[in-house]
Amino acid sequence: MNRKQLLILVGVLVALIVAGAGVMWSERSAWRSSSAIVGERLLPGLVVADVEKIKVIESGETVTLNRVDGKWQVAERNGYPANLDRIADFLAKLAELKITQLEPLAESQRARMQLLEPKAAPGKDAGTAVELESKDGKSVGRVLLGKRVFMQTQTTAPTKGAPQATGRYVLGKDPSSMAVILDTLQNAEAKPGPWLSRDLIRVSNAKSMQWSSGSGKPGWSVVRESETKDWRFADSAEKLDNNKVQDLVSVVLYIALGDVVTDSTKGGFDKGATLKIQSFDGLAYTIRLGDLEGDMRYLRVALTGEPPKVRVPGKGESAEEKDKLDKTFEENRKAWMLGLERERKLESWTFLVPNSNIESLSRDRAQLLPGTKKDEAKKS
Questions:
Q1: Which among 143, 172, 301, 334 is placed 20 to 30 Å from 249, CA to CA?
Q2: How many Cβ atoms sit within 10 Å of the Cβ of residue 359?
């Protein structure tokens, strides 16, 4: 081997060493970068207070939550109030989510990991996009949620059933890598219903109830002298089943909605039953029942009247007791009035409510009478 050949060989060896070192350094840098990212927050710098809009997008469905004058609303339901607890919990989770694993993601693998953009992909391969915006419309965070991660534990061993989802694959700013988070984010749904405020009305201290069918069936009216007295028919001495009337009282103590109807012409209320309730507190509720829609029923509510402004002192109260009870009454009344203010606004809306929760409100007069011995035998 002559000198020229030796120099060429040495040059080749040096080139190979330099190339190898470059590859090792690149891999080590990537490893260091990946290691640095694991344990960090998925959305660093996200400030929950800055979020004024939340959009959840799935294939074919979108829900938009806007904060207007400090109050959250559901845009797809004509601005109906949103569920504040659900939104607060969702944003808190997003702000605290940490990356527990980071893996490279080739473009060809995105469908398998359900990380395709929902607007452009079929449902089974598309992810769920969560977009957060500030008041000026600027993005303050975006995440694409993909396939759920399942982990076998002692509680999900083969003998104890299928493994439970413990996390999810997600895509952040870098489209070339996907992260794993230890939360399934089940609340990230693009359906408006789950994001609506669940409370409708809470009717307490019912004094009288009047029912009309709207379809020609005999109506009824019942009253009671106090909350501890039994119910009786207002227009006759005919005996009723107090327990059946009390069932109605239990139903109207709390009615929760299923969904809000944006088309006010729907419902079939012209032939539906109406229940009017007067309370000992001076309030009057009107509940109108409409048609069935699957296992849901159309419903409308209205509230009139004014609750007492002062408390009626009890017998034998001392001055100290009276002051204490009056102060408590005033504090409770403020919260009460806020609730009534919300309920008064419900009159302009049409709702869908699970029929199984309110079907007893459709009882006609015959269904309030005591059961015959034959009926009682059937029950037993």
A1: 334
A2: 13
